[in-house]
Amino acid sequence: MPAxxxxxxxxxxxxxxxxxxxxxxxxxxxxxxxxxxDEFQLLIAVILSAQTTDARxxxxxxxxxxxxxxxxxxxxxxxxxxxxxIRSTGFFRMKAKNIIACARDIVERFGGxxxxxxxxxxxxxxxxxxxxxxxxxxxxxxEALAVDTHVFRVSHRLGLTLGTTPRQVEDxxxxxxxxxxxxxxxxxxxxxxxxxxxxxxPLCDRCPVNELCPTPAIIKRMRRRGPGSP
Length: 230
What we know:
The protein is an all-alpha fold. It contains twelve helices and no strands.
């Protein structure tokens, strides 16, 4: 089957809220799959998670933090040594450069403590809006919603957004939910994307929001038209 197109219009707000409420009931204990002991470890783990799986990061970070347990130690590390430890996460040269520079920033500019403020977080090497949002929500219980590839895909398939950028998707999602639920919603959507609403093909027959979602109808039309249909 060719790639499944996203719906061309958003579902009504009532349907969107019902979908999100169903996901909340389905994944009531959803949290980040990254393993960490403090905000520094979480921050580094999220940077390493780009273009790889959380499971792969969790296999890598114990050795990294055993050798470099603090921002001070990681900030003084040799890049080649860090590269060897994190090689399996992919893009290891850039990631090693970023996490060393990030640790150095934390020491030199923030007294060795990961900052809480979004602008300060995003000023750190290797930290963009998504990474800052994960750290704010998970480590500091701040109101933030992170848009990764799962959140982007699932929110489009559900008809919650037509946004073409992560920020547009974030704005559409946060407009549907009270701020206190933004962080949790990130994990509902991620878990649903991993378990059911997979790429490239969702498991619609197992989906708790199947009857509310516009994507099953799109898939049925594609199947009626046959292989190679647009």
